[in-house]
Design a protein that fits this description.
The chain is mostly helical. It has one domain. It is built from six helices and no strands. Helix 1 packs antiparallel against helix 5 and helix 4 packs antiparallel against helix 5.
Length: 169
């Protein structure tokens, strides 16, 4: 199961990396098209869709690598039972919020598909297509938070601060 979950987080991160390359391609195409005097309809929107995809698809991988910004002032000082209880409370809240985020992201993409919602630009992109990346990213983030919750419950979760955070002043 661990290998499958790690593969899922890595696959989503790779898709996010491809979306970042997509941002580069769209921006370069926009620059070149302006210089050469031709128009590519919707190019700014596609760059935006790619940027959103990159961000959402990388969420779970970032969480699992302890790279999200965290405020550890209180939780870092609590040891033993109180620290574990606070971490479980925080992870439970995160699981619930991620579940809501995933549910409404999937619902949005589905509703956009059902009502055939399209972008207002001249490219008229069906909005459910870029919304799928948000839905996928939030579902994988929800799974990652459940994973963290179960690991904390079992006492197997390793919560280390990134090295540069220890030297920050």
């Amino acid at each position: 199961m661990r290998r499958t979950l790690d593969w899922l987080y890595d696959a989503a991160a790779w898709l996010g990396a491809l979306a970042m390359i997509g941002v580069l391609v769209w921006v370069l195409l926009s620059i070149v098209s302006r210089q050469l005097g031709f128009n590519v309809p919707g190019i700014d929107a596609y760059a935006g869709y790619s940027m959103a995809a990159a961000g959402f698809l990388a969420l779970a991988h970032t969480l699992k690598r302890n790279e999200h910004i965290r405020v550890t002032l209180l939780i870092g000082r609590l040891k033993g039972g109180p620290g574990r209880a606070l971490r479980m409370w925080a992870l439970t809240a995160a699981v619930l919020l991620a579940a809501l985020f995933a549910y409404y992201s999937v619902r949005l993409a589905w509703q956009s598909h059902v009502i055939n919602d399209v972008s207002t630009g001249n490219d008229a992109t069906p909005l459910w297509i870029p919304q799928l990346t948000m839905a996928l990213g939030t579902v994988v983030l929800f799974i990652a938070f459940i994973d963290e919750w179960v690991l904390e419950l079992r006492g197997q979760r390793v919560d280390t601060a990134p090295e540069e955070a220890l030297h920050n002043e």
